[in-house]
Specification:
The chain contains 11 helices and 12 strands. It is α/β, with parallel strands linked by helices. It has one domain: TIM Barrel, CATH 3.20.20. The strands form 3 sheets. The protein has an 8-stranded parallel β-barrel, surrounded by 4 helices. Strands 1-2 form a two-stranded antiparallel sheet. The chain has a two-stranded antiparallel sheet with strand order 6-7. Helix 2 packs across helix 3 and helix 8 packs across helix 9. The longest helix is centred in the last third of the chain and has 18 residues. The radius of gyration is 19 Å and the shape is globular.
Length: about 300
């Protein structure tokens, strides 16, 4: 396990992103309980997902094992009354109100990690921090962080707040954080929670399409390199894709979107085998794709 920032939370290198859970109670309960039984301890959701129902599902499934797990959720996206979509609302009042709704849905009296679900440089950042600090003092949350890919936003929270984590998209095919934020976060004792690590499944076998700045041909070549490395090392492509990002010291855990028993079994296998890549292999993987950087929000 790795310590999440400067908190007292220790998380497994593989964790569960709960956004994709279905609505069948028997299925999602079985998936989450099996994950816990296998040693996975970190579960991430958000009040945005399925209009709050995802938090409800996670809370119901994990209530009997609450003391054994770390529950993370997010706030800042407000559903419109007619359900047609959502708007960004990072106001202090919104955060102070919606923490109580998340607690109720999650069937718990505290949230281990509460995250701002996005953020812009024009947000009332000091007021947002005041809201998180207040609910932390009240015991409603243990720690807080942000979910963001924007370097300028991440830098502001590092400077101004006591965040312990940043959830961000990071993979072999989206290595922009390596240039912009990972070293800075590590130097400041802030951990990274990775999402998007298998690039929509294309690094582990799904058909290649254009992805970010890469053509489908480039994506296919990257996936082929991952597969060759996996074969040589006696691993799976999922092992290699996750080991690549876990090889950076800032990264604490990789949140995998899990919908099926087969996906969970693969995640459990990776957790049980989790080992660093041999010297030079991570560099070889990185050299298999061309470099690109964030252009906006730098």
């Amino acid at each position: 396990m790795k310590q999440l920032g400067k908190s007292d939370l220790w998380v497994t290198p593989v964790s569960v992103g709960c956004m994709s859970l279905g609505e069948n109670a028997a299925v999602y309960t079985d998936l989450l309980r099996r994950a816990v039984d296998a040693g996975i301890n970190f579960f991430d959701t958000a009040d945005l997902y399925n209009k709050g129902l995802n938090e409800l599902y996670v809370g119901e499934a994990l209530k009997p094992v609450r003391k054994d797990v770390i529950i993370a959720t997010k706030v800042g996206n407000q559903w419109r009354p007619d359900g047609s979509g959502w708007d960004w609302n990072p106001s202090k009042a919104y955060i102070l109100k919606h923490i109580d709704q998340s607690l109720k849905r999650l069937k718990t009296d505290y949230i281990d990690l509460y995250q701002l679900h996005g953020g812009t440089i024009d947000d009332p950042i000091d007021e947002i921090i005041e809201a998180f600090e207040r609910i932390k003092e009240q015991g409603k949350i243990r720690w807080y962080g942000i979910s963001s890919i924007r370097p300028n936003v991440i830098r502001e929270y590092i400077k101004r707040a006591h965040i312990v984590s940043v959830m961000t998209q990071y993979s072999l095919l989206d290595h922009r954080p390596e240039e912009a934020t990972l070293d800075l976060l590590h130097e400041n004792g802030v951990s990274v929670i990775c999402r998007g690590t298998v690039a929509q499944g294309m690094l582990i076998g799904k058909p290649a399409t254009n992805y970010l700045q890469y053509t489908d041909g480039e994506v296919a070549r990257a996936a082929k390199t991952v597969a060759k490395v996996a074969e040589r090392l006696g691993l799976t492509p999922l092992d290699v894709a996750l080991a690549y990002v876990l090889g950076h010291p800032a990264v604490a855990t990789v949140a995998l979107g899990i919908r099926t028993t087969a996906q969970l079994d693969e995640a459990i296998d990776v957790l049980q085998r989790a080992e660093p890549l041999p010297d030079g292999v991570r560099h070889q993987l990185r050299q298999s794709v061309r470099t690109f950087h964030y252009e906006a929000h730098r």
